[in-house]
Design a protein that fits this description.
about 450 residues, mainly alpha, four-stranded antiparallel β-sheet, about 50% helix
Length: about 450
């Protein structure tokens, strides 16, 4: 989006919010400008106009940041033993006020003790709640601490009746089994040893043999993230005749083959992404970037592909040949869409819309009407209008496998992170983690 120099910042605020299909209130969000010329983001004051914030660089960007939401970088507060936690009250667990019942599904905030209590409850079980907890627990606690709480929960006080004690212990074992299975070999070695010691001590009795064997089997044979088995042979590649010559150019290679090879590169990165890489906006913060190596690699590929095709286009000398090259690049993007590689469709569209190419008026005049129509359709698919509405609809109707446009989901996660605190009065904001789960699990 571009704004005139005399546009009020308050109007810019409203237009951007409307463009991305989100509801923002100036009381909760601040619009800031970022630029290579600036050491840090500059807050934009609503009563000023855009010309008040014009800098020498033409690569300025605007984004929303939440007001008064601080990152929870401190250590977790020490919690009491799970059996010493007070009874349910607003001090340790809250529920959706619109819900008639205080059920697992309606939990909004809770202490770690209360969450573990609910996830191992013998009276109420909800698979969605368990799935959210298992995927998201690293965002609000540590693996070691979770295991400590599970052991505490298993060691039920003698004041409980024997039947209830057994029900709780069985539920804890079921959760541990599912947790170990879904961790897929990612558990720390220290945690694995602790679980094995637990199996040999607390689960040593004959009544726990089946559960002990099941947990041990999942520890010793972790689920792997191997490539899916193909049901048929891969398609034969379209090899150019001059493949071994140094004069090989983009014009010598079939559009479909270029799209295939780029998609293989994208998928090799995409399949490695783990759920934890999406936590805390790790890909966008220097101190957390080491936690999101694969997301950053996918972003890097996006930027490289976008720049590569832009460079290929502007490096062509004549107008006629350049227009032909643009049409070839559009065809490649169209083939990527056929392969459901939305990620690189967006990258190529971004490259074609590069300002250096946008100024090539004579080149654009020579592009065929059919290719212009195709480009418009591609732009529509990856447009950010309506919170990427067209992309989401296209992805929902596409048959897998697919490589989604990651930017749409990273944008969602940034909004969730900026607009929702990690904790509310020392209780874990579980609603926030549900929001993140709903984005990541798609």
């Amino acid at each position: 989006m571009e704004f005139k120099p005399d546009t009020l910042i308050s109007d810019v605020f409203k237009q951007i919010a409307q463009h991305v299909g989100r509801t923002f209130g100036p009381e909760n969000f601040q619009l800031v400008m970022e630029s290579p010329d600036l050491n840090e983001p500059v807050p934009l004051e609503e009563e000023k106009v855009m010309r008040d914030y014009i800098y020498s660089s033409d690569s300025c960007s605007l984004r929303f940041v939440s007001r008064g939401v601080n990152e929870d970088d401190g250590e977790e507060e020490e919690e009491c033993n799970i059996w010493l936690e007070a009874s349910d009250s607003e001090a340790n667990i809250t529920f959706d006020k619109k819900s008639k019942e205080k059920s697992i599904q309606s939990i909004e905030t809770a202490t770690l003790n209360k969450l573990v209590e609910r996830v191992t409850s013998p009276e109420e079980y909800d698979v969605d709640f368990v799935n959210v907890f298992v995927m998201m627990y690293r965002a609000f606690t540590t693996e070691e601490r979770l295991w400590q709480k599970l052991v505490e929960r298993f060691r039920v006080p003698d004041s409980f009746s024997e039947p209830m004690k057994q029900k709780i212990q069985v539920r804890v074992c079921i959760f541990v089994k599912n947790w170990v299975e879904k961790a897929s070999g990612e558990l720390h070695e220290k945690t694995r040893r602790s679980i094995m010691e637990f199996l040999e001590s607390d689960l040593a009795g004959p009544s726990f043999k089946l559960m002990r064997d099941a947990i041990q089997d999942r520890l010793e044979n972790p689920k792997s993230h191997e490539d899916p088995v193909l049901s048929g042979k891969p398609p034969a590649p379209f090899l150019p005749r001059n493949i071994k010559e140094s004069t090989l150019t983009i014009d010598d290679i079939e559009e479909l083959e270029i799209a295939r090879q780029l998609t293989l590169q994208s998928f090799a990165i995409y399949k490695k992404i783990r759920a934890t890489e999406f936590f805390k906006g790790a890909w966008s913060k220097d101190k957390y970037k080491h936690l999101a190596p694969n997301i950053l690699a996918l972003i890097e590929q996006y930027n490289q592909v976008s720049s590569m095709f832009a460079s290929i286009i502007v490096s062509v000398d004549t107008v006629r040949a350049r227009a032909k090259t643009v049409q070839k690049v559009i065809n490649i993007a169209s083939k990527l869409l056929e392969l459901n590689n939305f990620h690189l469709v967006s990258a190529i569209v971004s490259g074609i819309n590069n300002s250096a190419i946008g100024r090539l008026k004579f080149t654009h005049a020579r592009i065929s009407r059919r290719h212009k129509q195709t480009l418009q359709e591609l732009e529509s698919v990856v447009s950010m209008e309506g919170a990427f509405k067209n992309f989401r609809e296209a992805l929902a109707s596409a048959a897998p496998p697919c490589i989604p446009f990651m930017g749409a989901y990273l944008t969602d996660l940034i909004f969730i992170a900026d607009g929702n605190p990690d904790k509310i009065e020392n209780r874990i904001n579980f609603v926030k983690h549900k929001f993140v789960y709903n984005v990541v699990a798609r």
